[in-house]
Specification:
alpha+beta, four-stranded mixed beta sheet
Length: 404
């Protein structure tokens, strides 16, 4: 090998970018194997991180400012230096900490939060949240039934379904105005008033269906069908009217039917027809617990049928009173009144002691229905049992917005 011959260089080692740490917007999204330093320290068998940060979750600091909370992998943690004897002694002194779920009796690793007089594990908390949502939907279903009955009782009605024929987007991806719109209208008895496909594009625009009527004729048909009638619509009727107006043909219409505030039980509900339809069905996604969006009816006569079913709905569903309804029952903000307060009662002693007391209070209507939970083992008194219940009480108190 000559000196001029170049020395062979070692092969370059490819550099891989560090893996991005996951970020979670809410605590319910955080996997079970990730925990904060504080959570590990508060466990009944405390641990401390021994590895790097593996993720972040959105949170707030003691000044209530937004911050990202560091998450560690429990598999990369180690036990603290506290011995078993020390942990047992500390647990006997920590009377305010509850780790046993009131509903299912699970012995949880982390302290539990109180919810309406009960300390719940994550699953029971989820179940209680779903039950609250079902109660709210039952109350909202009754309101939507009354709303639908008023629609049919208030006079002539035009139930409308609208679909658009979309145009191809521009090469840059910009959306073009719709080519046409199908408007289907029935009256309060389900009888057809109109079923027309209206051209919504100019005369030179290509791709418009051949059966579409001219904007002038379509506007005249719409005006005639809505004359003297309150109207309710499912679909983008506003876009149809706007496009016809841009083409020089205005559609004269009467009053919109079923206008409401959307406020119920202290919360704002969407009050368009499609949202009321979803609320009336009240189907929750079993994975997320969120309200499902039902499949659309597809025609005006099916919208009419849906409204008739809503109007004839009996009051049925999950019994109970929603949180918003309880606040309304207590009164309006900044008012002084007799306020009925729920009082949490814990009876410690023999297993049947709480049951006997609950029966006595129930005979005098002093406990809330289905509020008795237990008995469960007492943490403070070895060998004793605790029974929880929620009793009724009355105090005279001024209530502010914060109190509601």
């Amino acid at each position: 090998m000559t000196e001029q011959q170049e020395t062979k260089q070692p092969a370059a080692v490819p550099v891989t970018a560090p893996k991005a740490r996951p970020w979670y917007s809410r605590w319910s999204e955080v996997p079970w194997h990730l925990a904060t330093r504080t959570q590990m320290a508060r466990a009944d068998l405390p641990r401390e991180p021994a590895g790097p940060v593996r993720g972040y979750v959105a949170g707030r600091d003691f000044r209530d400012k937004k911050m990202d909370v560091e998450l560690y992998d429990v598999a990369e943690s180690r036990p603290t230096k506290a011995s078993g004897v020390q942990l047992a002694s500390a647990a006997s002194r920590r009377s305010a900490t509850v780790r046993v779920c009131t509903d299912c009796g699970a012995h949880c690793q982390l302290p539990l939060q109180e919810r309406q007089g009960r300390y719940l594990c994550a699953m029971c908390w989820r179940i209680a949240s779903v039950v609250d949502t079902q109660i709210e939907l039952r109350e909202r279903r009754a309101e939507n039934a009354a709303w639908a009955r008023h629609l049919f009782e208030a006079g002539p009605l035009a139930v409308t379904w609208v679909e658009l024929v979309a145009a191809e987007p521009t090469p840059s991806g910009r959306r073009r105005p719709p080519l046409a719109g199908r408007v289907h209208v029935v009256d309060e008895n389900g009888k057809r008033l109109l079923d027309v496909l209206v051209r919504l594009a100019g005369p030179r625009t290509k791709g418009v269906p051949e059966e579409a009527v001219s904007p002038e004729l379509g506007a005249a048909k719409l005006t005639k069908s809505f004359a003297g009638r309150r109207w309710i619509v499912w679909g983008p009727l506003g876009q149809v009217r706007e496009r016809l107006a841009e083409l020089g043909h205005r559609v004269e219409m009467g009053a919109l039917a079923g206008v409401g505030t959307g406020w119920s039980g202290g919360m704002r509900w969407p009050d368009d027809v499609a949202s009321r339809y979803a609320q009336w069905r009240g189907e929750l996604d079993p994975t997320t617990g969120e309200l499902r969006t039902p499949w659309p009816p597809g025609t005006a006569d099916r919208v009419w049928l849906t409204l008739k079913r809503m109007a004839e709905t009996p009051d049925a569903g999950r019994p109970g009173q929603s949180r918003g309804r309880r606040r309304e029952t207590l009164g309006r903000p900044y008012a002084a009144f007799w306020r009925a307060c729920d009082v949490r009662v814990a009876v410690t002693g023999p297993a049947d002691a709480g049951e006997r007391l609950a029966a006595i209070l129930a005979d005098h209507d002093e406990t809330l229905p289905a509020s008795v939970v237990g008995p469960v083992p007492s943490r403070e008194v070895p060998g004793a049992m605790v029974t929880y219940m929620v009793g009724r009480g009355e105090v005279l108190a001024p209530v502010s917005a914060e109190g509601c």
